[in-house]
Design a protein that fits this description.
Number of helices: 2
Distance between the termini: 36 Å
Order of helices and strands: HEEEEEEEEEEHEEE
Strand order of the largest sheet: 1-2-3-5-6-7-8-9-10-11-12-13
Largest sheet: 12 strands, antiparallel, barrel
CATH superfamily: monomeric porin ompg
CATH class: Mainly Beta
Strand content: over 45%
Length: about 260
């Protein structure tokens, strides 16, 4: 799997970037503090790679947001992963569903305000994998997260943009698993019609728990993306990321967003 990931990253990166720039035109603001309008459904599908030393991962992710009310959005995320690592010269791999995420986002400030401030709660549910396997797919513990995102759209030189900041605390219902504090900052700016550049900086801190997973949750990650809005409902995203501090890691990702 390692050689395949390396070839995939080398080939798709220039092709994906060139294709998006050639297609032109940029999406309007998509930010995490905003809720979906009542009855509206936002869907996403992601393919993502991750490499760190001998460890390699390919992940597929299905994502859905549904506007229950104008100020309340329901969230579902379902990931499936293939992972591989090397121990004492032997290759070990594993595959399967990881942790299902179910969440609710409540925008508690005025819907007419240009700044969206929300409170989001998420539960993480392991989907039957063996957390004691030689190469586990996850921590194997139920987790609860509280997140506060604040977002705003703006215009710069007549083109749309947005910024968003978030703070989150994740508590696992297992004293052996490290809890997490996460901070996120994001900005996106249209550069030509229907094409935008976006950047995110995320920092994660581990709080107590098992040393086996501790290094994975201590990092600072920088992500860069190009967004292409093919239609008012359909958006394509291509990007890459790297950990600039803490645990090592890097990868590429492609996303498709569709609004019903």
């Amino acid at each position: 799997m390692g050689n395949w990931i390396s070839r995939w990253m080398q080939v798709t990166a220039p092709i994906g970037l060139s294709s998006l720039l050639w297609l032109g035109n940029a999406p309007s603001a998509i930010a995490n503090g905003f809720t979906q309008p009542q009855g509206s459904t936002f869907t996403g599908f992601t393919v993502r790679t991750f490499t760190a030393d001998d460890f390699e991962k390919i992940e597929l992710e299905a994502y859905v947001e549904y506007g229950l009310e104008d100020d309340i959005t329901l969230i579902l995320k379902l990931p499936y992963a293939w992972i591989e690592d090397e121990f004492n010269g032997e290759t070990v791999d594993n595959a399967g569903f990881t942790d299902l995420e179910l969440g609710v986002r409540w925008r508690f400030n005025d819907l007419d305000s240009p700044i969206a401030t929300s409170l989001q709660g998420t539960v993480f549910i392991p989907l039957g994998y063996d957390s004691n396997a030689e190469l586990p797919l996850g921590r194997g513990a139920v987790g609860l997260e509280v997140r506060v995102p604040v977002s705003q759209g703006y215009q710069l030189a007549g083109r749309n943009g947005f910024w968003s900041v978030e703070a989150a605390y994740r508590q696992y219902l297992d004293s052996d698993v490290s809890n997490e504090i996460r901070l996120l900052g994001e900005v996106s700016q249209d550069i030509i019609d229907r094409v935008a550049l976006a950047a995110q900086l995320e920092q994660s801190f581990a709080v107590g728990g098992d040393e086996r997973f501790r290094d994975e949750t201590q990092f600072t990650k920088l992500t860069g993306q190009i967004w292409f809005r093919a239609t008012d409902r359909l958006t394509f995203v291509f990007g890459g990321y790297t950990n600039v501090a803490g645990s090592e890691g890097r990868g590429l990702e492609g996303r498709i967003w569709y609004q019903f």
